[in-house]
């Protein structure tokens, strides 16, 4: 549930920033440049909220930021391909196209963050052949 709540906030922030930039600067700046700026800012915002509220981890922030960014680099690459296809080939509006791409990548980012970015090694509780805690061997 925390991921869903933070995901909604992250998505609203990222799309809101993209929409704001597109509506204010879209007549002078290409939408892929706007996408790039919005993506960088949104990745930093999303990292802070997911680390703090969703996965509740401490330490190793620099390593996790690199992993986190790499997950979004894949998402960004997909976005850079699909967004122009929807806008230039399918002739859909930029904001509608971006909303469609964003919805399509949200679930994949959660799975990647859970299994890659914020993954912690499992703690062995009962290893066969090892002495029991406090017992004699």
TrEMBL record:
GO terms for cellular component: plasma membrane. InterPro entries: GtrA_CellWall_Glycosyl (IPR051401), GtrA_DPMS_TM (IPR007267). Keywords: Membrane, Transmembrane, Transmembrane helix. Its main location: membrane. It is a multi-pass membrane protein. It comes from the Bacteria. The chain crosses the membrane at residues 7-25, 31-53, 65-86, 92-112. Residues 2-118 form the GtrA/DPMS transmembrane domain. Belongs to the GtrA family. This is GtrA/DPMS transmembrane domain-containing protein.
